[in-house]
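Chapter summary example.
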Amino acid sequence: MTAAAGTYSATVAPGTYTATASRPGYGSVTSDNLVIANGGAATFSGCLSPIPIVNSALPVVVSAEDAVLSNSAADPGERLTVNLPLVNVGTANTTNLVATLQANAGVTNPSAPANYGAVVAGGSAVSRPFTFKAAGACGDNITLNLGLQDGATNLGAVSYTMRMGGVPAPYLTEAFDTVTAPALPAGWTTAISGALGAWTTIATAPVNSSPNAAVGPSAAAVGNTELISPAIAVPAGGAQLSFRNLYNLERGTTSYFDGMVLEYSVNGGAFADITSGGNAFLTGGYNGVISPSFSNPLANRSAWSGLSGGTAAAPSYIDTVINLPAAAAGQMVRLKWRVATDSSVSATGIAGARIDNVTLTSLSLVCAIPRALDVDLNGGYAGATDAVIMLRYLFGYRGDAMVANALGGGATRTTAAAMLTHLDTIRPLLHVDSNGSVDAMTDGLMILRFMLGLPQAAVVAGAVGPAATRDATAIMNYLVAITPTVP
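The structure predicted for these 487 residues follows.
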């Protein structure tokens, strides 16, 4: 490292050397050969020039996609447009920065290079759109590489990683808000022993979402109270549980006396601690071990004890998140929140435990279907081909009768068997009026009219099923959403 004046000296053995000076944000400079004689010296002076250093930045934003339904993620076979941000962490602005999206195994048919122009050193990130077709399997990571050229200067390459598929929405949610306190929602039960009362819902603060939270009481005596969920189907790929968690349960300076645990049961079997499968809390986990003194039923078990947050008079919620044990995958599971107290005093203030906003989310990524209503997969949506095949399918035609004279030019999905498999997969998407059933003379007819280019009034005329939950405007918006195009 140089001195404050930018000088540097070193003692070396006689010989011939080169010296290089560098600094982050500047170009390096290297001397010619420096010949050092015994007892002699050589001097090299150089000037470092500021240079741009361009890095990738976040977030990567999906601005257009042709998979249905859109999930703001890359999906296998999908053509999508993403905005890729670049940031200049160097000491000089770029002058005419051009970025090229490079093709690879996961990125095919990339769009033309994009001009980022002058990206200011130390300034905000600058984004430009790129379009490509994603390749691979659902859950794969794909890498987007941008080659960077600033005029005559090659600035190297930067990369971004995208995972194919979107995180699914929670498939179970319970906020305890659809009942009138103190009732529990349908299927939720409670069991008690000893001095503790039952779990109920409560509409007084603190609740996480109005009007209710579930509450388990505390007591200055030995007791056990349990809140048990209905049986829940866990996807084969497993599920993640999250909930808002509040507790104010007796603890000492170094000991924990009252506590709460979370347990699970598979297919009606015995309950075990939620961590017994070797899984650990991702956040908001147990914070103590219950004392073996004073007869708490949870003695020697890890549990939530003490104060979750806030004060005893106004405790606050924390987020608790855990992936369910592997044994739960693909099974029917019940969850049990269990509060137990010992024979000594209770916590002061608002004592007990509360939970709210319970959600279960599949751990498996969900990938959308590229151009789902392009039934013959020829790159377009057409009333005389795709819509006719869908209408025949909904009428019950199969085999040649379903596809005869209805293939578009350039079709790449051409057999009745392949189309039937595809149509069975996308059938839920054909539920245009959202009235509870997919029908040819309602949903199929509206798809045909829409793909023929008819206006809204003509699309819906006499074709909306009974008890439909989408009006004419919503139907048209939905038809547009399930027929996306990306140039």
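To summarize the output: Residues 383-395 form the longest helix (13 residues).
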